[in-house]
Specification:
Number of helices: 5
Shape: elongated
Distance between the termini: 41 Å
Order of helices and strands: HHHHH
Helix content: over 70%
Low-confidence stretches: none
Length: about 150
């Protein structure tokens, strides 16, 4: 006697295709917050030279990449119900492709930083890195805007 709010309702809800869009919304805010925080921490490090900010920014970027994998996976799963990813052209108005593109930029930044730990200390590289990071955050926010429009939230 679990009632309508018990385990049986939970099983019914998650066995239905109609509930998948609600799961994607649980994942999407993590990479947005983590990637933008990582770049913010990197900019603070460039301005203050406090080593804790450098290390924290790197770890937050890694967590952003991990959470982005979950967001992309649930987005692709949701897209199997909607069919948006392969049907909307040009690509810069396609929510899924814009977000995947921004995540690839963040991945490149992370690899760059791991292979060259002094990137944020280098006189020229630090500005290139933070500019690309800011651009990636802007693209990420734009993709989030497209997703909100697609979901009918704005």
């Amino acid at each position: 006697a679990l009632g309508s709010y018990g385990l049986s309702a939970f099983v019914r809800a998650f066995s239905s295709k109609n509930t998948m869009p609600e799961i994607h919304y649980l994942f999407i805010h993590f990479p947005i917050a983590l990637f933008s925080s990582a770049i913010f921490l990197d900019i603070l490090y460039v301005l203050t030279r406090k080593n804790d900010l450098d290390q924290t920014g790197c770890w937050v970027m890694l967590l952003g990449l991990v959470s982005a994998a979950g967001s992309i996976a649930t987005g692709i799963w949701q897209d199997s119900l909607v069919g948006h990813l392969g049907s909307v052209l040009p690509l810069w108005i396609n929510h899924g492709w814009v977000q995947i593109f921004s995540c690839l930029i963040f991945l490149c930044l992370f690899v760059w930083r791991i292979k060259n730990p002094d990137t944020l200390s280098h006189p020229n590289q630090k500005w290139v890195y933070t500019f690309i990071g800011g651009l990636a955050v802007t693209i990420l926010f734009y993709g989030g805007h497209l997703g909100a429009k697609l979901a009918g939230r704005i």
